[in-house]
Specification:
Strands 1-3-2 form a three-stranded antiparallel β-sheet. It is about 55% helix and about 15% strand. It is elongated and about 55 Å long. The N and C termini lie far apart (about 35 Å). It is α+β, with helices and mostly antiparallel strands. It has two domains: about 1-60, Arc Repressor Mutant, subunit A; about 65-95. The protein has five helices and three strands, in the order E-H-H-E-E-H-H-H.
Length: about 100
């Protein structure tokens, strides 16, 4: 599933997340936002090159089941969502 933040007990490094596509395109913004909301935490290591692992807090883990339900819904309705987006885009272009 693209857009997967972190599984319940996973830790992930930012560069690995970028390479594997496990995060949306705005990795740094998403991680900073998650940390600010106490949904995720950073675990820095004093290594060369510097390394930081990110993982969910207990609060963040509490969202995994509701987000999985939302992801399944979005997958089941992807065609409808794509059609609605195309109609919206077409209407905007027509109005311009």
């Amino acid at each position: 599933m693209r857009g997967r933040l972190l599984a319940r007990d996973d830790a992930v490094q930012r560069n690995h997340a970028r390479r594997t596509g496990n995060f949306a395109s705005h990795v740094d913004v998403d991680l900073a936002s998650a940390r600010a909301r106490r949904l995720g935490q950073a675990n820095p290591y004093a290594t060369v090159p510097p390394r930081v692992d990110y993982q969910l807090t207990n609060l963040g883990r509490s969202l995994t089941d509701p987000l999985a339900i939302l992801a399944r819904w979005a997958g089941a309705h992807r065609g409808d969502i794509d059609c609605a987006r195309a109609a919206y885009d077409q209407a905007r272009e027509s109005a311009a």
